[in-house]
Structure formats: C-alpha cells, structure tokens
Amino acid sequence: MPLNVRKKIDSALVFTLESDSDDDKALALAMARQAELAAERCALFREEAAARQRTAVLQTITAGLARARTVDDARAAAVDVVAEALGCPGAWLGVVEGGVEGDFGLVRTKGKQGDPESVWRRFPRTTPGPLKDVIDDGAARYFEDGAAYAAAYPAIGGDIAREGYEFVAFA
Q1: What pTM was estimated for this model as a whole?
Q2: Which of 7, 27, 2 is CA-nearest to residue 17?
Q3: Which of 76, 113, 168, 171 is 20–30 Å from 146 (CA)?
Q4: Cβ pair 129, 153 in contact under 8 A
Q5: What beta strand segments (E) does the chain contain?
Q6: How far apart are CA 95 and CA 72, in angstroms?
Q7: How far is CA 14 from CA 4, 17, 117, 166, in A?
Q8: Of 119, 118, 125, nearest to 104 (Cα)?
Q9: Does residue 112 sit in helix, strand or coil?
Q10: If DSSP codes are grouped into helix, strand and coil, which group holds residue 127?
Q11: pLDDT tens per residue, range 40-70
Q12: 10 Å Cβ neighbour count for 101?
C-alpha cells in the first residue's frame, strides 16, 4: 500500500495476509493510513524543530547586531555574532577604502583564515574575484565547497580549495 507523506508517495507498506477477506484488507488499509499519519506527524515535527532553530539563530544575530553602537561595533558583530550563530569555521569582513576604485582591506576576521599577512590582507578593489563581483552587482555568491569556488575563480581559488571549506559564501 502506498504511503503518502507530505502529499507525496515516498514509500510502500507491504502486508502478507492469511486471507483475502474484506475485513483483513480493511484492517491493512487502516494500519497503512495510521502509518501515514505517524510519518506526517514526524515530518511536521522535524519541520517545526528546524523552524525553531532558524528562529533562534536569527534572534541571536539580531541581538548581537542590536548591541552595536558604532560602525566598528557593527562590523565586529557582523563577523563574530553571525559566524558563531551559524557555526562558521571562519569569517572575515573587508571594506573598500578610498572610494569606488580604492583598496579592499581586511578589517575583521574570526576563526580559520589562513595567513593574515597574506596578499589578501589588502588588495585593489578591482582585483577579479567574487568580492569585486559582489560589490559590482550586489548579488551574493555561494559555492558548495572550495573546489566549486576554485572552478569559478581559478586564478585565486586555490587557497580556499586547499583549506577544505565545505561551503563558501560571499555577500
């Protein structure tokens, strides 16, 4: 008998009956429907728990950002609070200094960042890469892992690919 969970048949329940009586068939069907309802409740509970978790993360982030009193506080919170709330192994914030064509400077880091004195500490804003693209078009960039990042930006993606990140986002 098909089991319909979340309005989608995703499994089947099989009974081997001693007879093909209408009563046995009705009982088997009733048990299959009970199994559907139990699975539906579990799916709803899982979705509700995930929503609670997302809400808790957003509340943590909002509270951390609300404590900011200066631009530097807001920058620090954007890195520290958000990275901690999302469980990020590393985060950093860079700011374009000196106008639109100025340098991109690293102003805050947290966690796994490699060599902080590397060439990425400060570089021209026009350097090809996801940061330039995000600033130019305002669209975030997401990569499922360091290898996907390196494939999208082969000239500069090697460092992140070697770090073994599972997910990389530029926003």
Answers
A1: 0.59
A2: 27
A3: 76
A4: yes
A5: 2-5, 8-12, 90-97, 103-111, 122-124, 141-143, 168-170
A6: 11
A7: 14, 10, 63, 40
A8: 125
A9: coil
A10: coil
A11: 888 899 999 999 999 998 998 899 899 999 9
A12: 9
Tokens of 43: 């799916």
Total residue length of the chain? 171
The one-letter amino acid at 26: A
Rg (CA), the chain: 25
Q: 46: burial class by Cβ within 10 Å (0-12, 13-18, 19+)? A: exposed
CB contact at 8 A, 83 and 110: yes
**Which two tokens mark 59?**
């509340």
- Decide if 153 contacts 160 (C-beta within 8 A): no
Nearest to 80 by CA among 59, 96, 60: 60
Which amino acid, residue 135?
A: I
Which amino acid would we find at residue 61?
I
Amino acid at 80: D
pLDDT by residue (tens digit) across 116-167?
556 567 788 888 888 888 888 889 888 888 788 888 888 876 766 666 666 6
Tokens, residue 40: 């539906």
Structure tokens at 117: 């004195």
Amino acid at 168: V
